[in-house]
Amino acid sequence: MKNFFVYSIRFCVIPGLLLFLSVLTVFSNQEGVTARYKDASQKLDINGQVETIIPVPKQIVKATMDYQGGPFFIEARKSEIKRFKCSSCHNNKTVSIQNAAAISHADIKMVHGDTAAPLACNTCHSQEDRDSLVTSKGSKIDLDHVYDMCGQCHFRQKKDWIGGAHGKRVTYWAGQRVVKNCTSCHNPHSPRFDKRWPATYSVPFK
Amino acid sequence: MDSDKTKKINRRAFLKGAASTAIVGTAAVTTGCKGKGLLGSSEVFALEFQEYFKKHYCLMTPAERQETVSRLEKLARIKQDITIEIDTTGPGQDVLYGYAFNVTRCEGYMECVKACVKENNLDRRSNTQYIRIFEMEHGQMSPDQGDGKYFHMVPREGHFYMGVQCFQCENPPCVKACPTKATWKEPDGIVVVDYDWCIGCRYCMAACPYWGRRFNWNQPEIPKQEIATQQHYLGNRQRVRGMMEKCTFCIQRSRKGKLTACVEACPTGARVFGNLLDPDSEIRFVLENKKVYRLKEDLGTDPKFWYFID
To answer: In sequence order, what DSSP letters do the residues of B231-272 get, joined into one string?
Structure first.
């Protein structure tokens, strides 16, 4: 008889209680603003409310994939590189540029990847075609679509970036989605943000 | 009945017009007696007098809103010699603003605070700031254990940063506390203040569990060249001493489809802003795919500001 009680408590009452509590927890949060946004599944029609064709300060290109709301745009990279095209120097001709030594890439410090074995130049840059990047599987990537390169290792960040939890939009929350590229914020050669002084300070409350 | 009503309104409008004409006339006479140099200020006097008797923002007709806006713009031109544009854009259809803050990504650079001060014409003398960034040790949960007045190289090892501002609660206690209905929640979820209706009792400040409201203890001082000229009546227009103000999700920007100043300034992308009612928006992606929490959720204030971790 005692065994039966123990059995029933262990296998019926406790799981039942847990089930009840979990259902309670799931539904207890479904009110107020949470319920309001969960009920809203209609795509926003922003036409006429704000301008849908939006001016952005930089050149943009269309991304190779879609986000949950369709195609989106990214900040271009090639127009930001001062001495693009790379092949204007990196070709098989003799170097005929003034200050060639000074503008070589000796200033680039590689702080990316494992500290014991950091990434090399040709981990990302193609040796055959100097104007593009190359993945570990050997496919060429345009410098504007550098997220495909970074996403090989940082696939979680790439997934978040496509959805909108990583990175940021440019200037507008409404209208055509334009987001920053990986290289808009991160220096690809040392992607971690530097330690620095804060831009301002707060006065004590009390 | 109808004709009676129109008659009444006509009579009222007539009296109002007569009163203001009389005042302007009196002002002109007084300044005339004082001398020629003060003649310009009679216009200021008339404008300020009319400003003094204007209605609550919610009760104004679009025409009346336009009148007060043009008066304020004129006053700024005469008194401060600046050209400002005050806008009264209303809330959008099917828009409910939401905000998310990534506590893993924030590095405590405080660029958001700097941008906010500039955008919202905050008082430089008392160093008013809508946003506070708390430096917290790993494992701490609430910002009241954190350090809100750090000034050293950031990020510091073993710490994370948590930004706090007005959370634009869906059930705002500050609105219930206001005795003059000077603060209310707009249909797009932003809690705003009619600065001219606020009596400065600070009940809302006491009611807010998040320290989200700021009081102007002194006449706000802003260098003339730093005044943001694109303003909104309920947002960043210039305030005077003795009234409450607060973060409005940069109403002058967000209602035109722009991101708030803090989101745009954030160098790490820790801040996400968007429309909660749009299933494709970034904020909805965060809410559906990330571990999110809200501050003091047990109080039932229902803030539209979520924290999330990577």
So the answer is: EETTTTSPP-TT-EEE--S-HHHHTTTBPPHHHHH-SS--EE
Which domain does B29 fall in, by range? 2-87
**Closest Cβ opposite residue B257 in set A173, A193, A201:** A173
- Which is nearest to B130 in space by CA: B269, B301, B244? B244
Residue pair B234/B248 in contact by the 8 Å Cβ criterion? yes
**pLDDT tens digits, residue range B193-235?**
999 999 999 999 999 999 999 999 999 999 999 999 999 999 9
Give the model confidence (pLDDT) of A104-138 as tens digits: 888 888 899 888 888 999 899 998 888 999 999 99
B139 at interface of A, judged by CB pairs closer than 8 A: no
Proportion of chain A in helix, strand, coil states, percent, rounded to 5: 35, 15, 50
Residue B172 shares a structural domain with residue B287: yes
Q: Which of A44, A168, A195 sits opposite B263 (nearest CB)?
A: A168
Kindly state whether A164 is in contact with chain B, defined as any CB-CB distance less than 8 angstroms. Answer: yes
Q: What is the pLDDT of residues B129-139, one digit of tens each?
A: 999 999 999 98
pLDDT the model gives residue B158 = 93
For residue B11, is pLDDT > 90?
Answer: no
Residue B3's H or E segment, with its range, is: helix B2-34
Instruction: Say how many C-beta atoms besides its own lie within 10 A of residue A46's C-beta.
Output: 21
DSSP E strand boundaries for B83-175: 85-87, 97-102, 132-137, 159-164
Alpha carbon distance B261, B165 (integer Å) = 13
ipTM value of the model?
0.81
Residue-level pLDDT at B2: 46
Residue B22: enclosing H or E segment and its boundaries?
A: helix B2-34
Distance separating the N- and C-terminal Cα atoms of chain A: 66
Here the tokens at position B153 are 């190289």
- On the question of pLDDT at A160 being above 80, the answer is yes
B234 and B168, same structural domain?
A: yes
Task: Say if the Cβ atoms of A33 and B107 lie within 8 Å.
Answer: no
Beta bridge partners of B215: B244
- Asked if A202 and B133 come within 8 Å (Cβ–Cβ), the reply is yes
| Residue ending a domain, choose from B87, B112, B143 | B87
Residue B33 has pLDDT above 60, yes or no: no
Interface test with chain A among B226, B252, B271, B281, by most A beta carbons within 10 Å: B281
* Residue labelled with tokens 């430096």: B135
Whether residue B169 is predicted with pLDDT greater than 50 in this model: the reply is yes
Most confident of A108-117, B31-40, B65-74: B65-74
Mean pLDDT of B233-240: 94
CA distance B305 to A175: 22
Q: What is the CATH number of the domain that holds B209?
A: 3.30.70.20
**Position B236 in a domain:** yes
Instruction: Please check whether residue B156 lies inside any domain of the structure.
Output: yes
Rounded average pLDDT over B249-278: 94
